[in-house]
Amino acid sequence: MVAVVVVAGAGLVLYDVAAVRADRPAMRWRRALADELAVRTLDDPWVLAGAAVAVVLGVGLLVLAVTPGLRRVLPMRNGGASVRAGLHRDAVALVLRDRALDVPGVRDARVRARHAAVTVRAESHFRDLDDVRRDLEAALAEGVAELGLARPPHVSVQVTRPGRRG
């Protein structure tokens, strides 16, 4: 909405400048504004108030520009509905952790969900590590597919024995 208002205002000013260049009179509001600005000094309260409003709007736009937005929310597939949904990254990590703990041989699992990737570190205590990794990758791929994310993250799996980190 802000962009539409700014574009409309810029279009109006551009039209007025083009009209003046074509030897037509400027719009009445622009002539009145030019007359007022020619008479007022910089320490006039109205000029100071206008400057303060411009500064507040500028700082607000800068804050919006550097704010990350909804980075902790992963968008879900739309499915043609007008409603948009998303899952918090911590919820995705919790669901995938539960999936990982359901795999036979997994004793503990730590899941970190980011925007484009999910990292799973699991401990296996009695099965072969390659078998656990294979079963874990299959279970997590199925879990990610069931979440219905718009851009499914890449899943990285690391399986170790208890007591050995890394």
Descriptive overview:
This protein has helices at residues 2-21, 28-39, 45-66, 89-101, 129-147, and strands spanning 73-75, 86-88, 106-113, 117-124, 154-160. The mean pLDDT is 90. Strand 4 (117-124), helix 5 and strand 5 (154-160) form a beta-alpha-beta unit. 52% of the residues lie in helices and 17% in strands. The relative contact order is 0.10. The two termini are 49 Å apart. The longest helix has 22 residues, at 45-66. The protein is elongated, with a radius of gyration of 29 Å. It has a 3-stranded mixed β-sheet. A two-stranded antiparallel sheet has the order 1-2. The protein contains 5 helices and 5 strands. The protein is of the alpha+beta class.
Short structural summary:
With about 170 residues, the protein is of the alpha+beta class. Helices cover about 50% and strands about 15% of the residues.
